[in-house]
């Protein structure tokens, strides 16, 4: 017996139709049933209308004179309505003939209370038809058409790789052989699939050779999992079987029509603009139905972290999810959520989200946008009609004062958080939970009543998980804290996203550009001359950063960098996009932004580049402090520096102005580095240290796609390629985290109280004062809290400067830890909440004693040598190494375990270290870099050093460490030439080794005595 392997295209068609008409809930149709003139499967139209609406059909009989006339009239009228309003609108809203209204599709009710509606839903007729002849003249046919009650909703061209045909041939067929003016393609089917057994693509508009097809694939890792483009293999079918088994499933397809397919109106500002049909990409659809399915089963009180890269279409995902959750019911017909609240902490994104969610609204009044304050928000929360509320996180503190309706606290809320990061891990998020959360002080599992006032207990109750609140947190770059608050714990105990669409997949599918593909780094060689003498002692960490800042702000340094930027922009960036490409300069500080803008304008004027204009973006007013600058002491604001025709340019107008062809370069300082969508950005010049999430978010301003944009360029003056790779690596696939040790919080609290500044009596007095706050006028509350912390404040000021600094560090550490961990831990003693509030007040009072500006080195140093040289251009590759899970908090909470800084040093010595680091061929080995890298390597490899530091003096601790130094020099990260140079220095130069040992092991010893790092 011979086994025949199905290899023809018709075999692939047959398999799909067989599965659809089996478990999929469809019926097969005869291609002869399609009326190409009307663009309808006429028999199904008549059958659905007459069977589901017999009385209405009978009324039309009487008006038209019988069955045949009624049939002809209704089909012609329906075709005309479809031509005018479109398939989606008519399927949702129905149509009328001679004043008789018909429903063309019964959409699924949110609950099963009405049996008649359920029966009409079951009567929907979904038909799949093979080889439909769409053009009577040419006889051409399309492989599959999906009909709903006789109306074409989708077409599909299928290819079989066994015959040498694949998905690209299907795409070509749509582009070259399908007339976009044909009724089936232009005014009936709202989506067209090109597919083979391995890959799927789709489009909602045929435009000949200009037709744009989007990937409709799961990703190589599978649905909701990290990976690249494509689909994984499956054991029981083809890689693309999810299309007909899931997406084309009868109920899912009707749900897509009901909730997902969206028609964006034409843009009146654009000539020739037409309405655009939006059909979700696979991951957009899948994340919504995944959240929906989980919430339907588990109800309120859950957290969902959605890690979706830039390019995922996150705004639309949020809009679809909000509308879906607003009508979600459980199997017993009870509503899962009473309200859906969509929150962002960026006002630009808030406006974009509001507009998108409002566009998806099908019933007027369901969406309420809160842009004013507490009364508007309270009204929206109490409204029966408003189901979806859009607002910013900053408005929720006002709600605490306005919400006196206890009923609101007993409703169930779905809170969708856009760009979930540190703002959702602090006090604003607790304000939200306190306003809406159902957990009350009496619900806390307390060992005993310790006298903590109800107001503070309410604050404590609001910090944890609330049984009536579910959070759906979206972000492309989750931090360790975000993972711990919103992440899902896997079988190995690690924290991960509920759903992932990775940066890798977005790049490989072409939705964003790879910003690391053309990455050029520069080395700065500079020497500073010490004018202060060898006896001036300053804090080393502060002095090092001030020395670096002094060099960066030097006018000569800025002029050299400006020359590089203007030349590169003119040669490489500006010619892109037909001469409309733009670039961004990213600065460390507002003062640097001012000097960058001036340096660029001077360079442009010097060379007569009239076709390049610049803008600058920074907040507030900045005064130039660098005494070397020719504008020292002058003050600047963004609007003044961006004057147009002699008039200041309002900050709100800057994005619109920058979009104009005349402007090429935007200089930014902590503004527009995130949440700024300018797809014409093709170049970035980085003059700022970038790490972690900040590096990814900043450089990702370049990744937005634009017609004709196929490459971007980065020139980086401050970071190495390896540093940028390490910043991006955790977010390329799926970011994972490990849970925090709860004891670090209580160790941090003990560290604060061990200073002896805060005692129990003062905490009791503070708690009593807090309990009276509601009775006190708002303008007098500050004085009451200050009085209750006065004794501790006086005691802190009596400490010597080093101990007082250590106390401030301990307070800051405890406040940061508590603000986050109190939301993640299942139990917090009420007394810890009192200490937290007390510490916040005391910390602010102590901070106000520190003079602004810190260390001033003006006049003590002078820049004598400077050279800017290109290191090289590379494509920074990602995904080749295992990534360590992120931690929300590192260390043990006592201050031990930090990196450790060189605590004090002579200014002259620090200048030498600075020169050795940045002027390798102008001076000695780069000492400060050595100290940093070797210190970190030793700490990672030698965990026993912590115990040694606890049991020895500093002098004994740093003694006889040559072996560890040499071992570290051999294994420290870096290129081989550098490692060889380090090893040679440690082996051959006894003075170098001794000097390095004192600095490195002194820093390690001090790190175990104090200094703690946690994620900001």
TrEMBL record:
Family annotation (PROSITE patterns): HELICASE_ATP_BIND_1
Lineage: superkingdom: Bacteria
Pfam families referenced in this protein's UniProt entry, alphabetically: HSDR_N (PF04313), SWI2_SNF2 (PF18766), T1R_D3-like (PF22679)
GO biological process, one term: DNA restriction-modification system
Keywords: Endonuclease, Hydrolase, Nuclease
Domain Helicase ATP-binding: 295-496
Recorded GO MF terms: ATP binding; DNA binding; type I site-specific deoxyribonuclease activity
The keyword Glycoprotein appears for this protein: no
Protein name as annotated: Restriction endonuclease subunit R
Originating organism: Paraconexibacter algicola
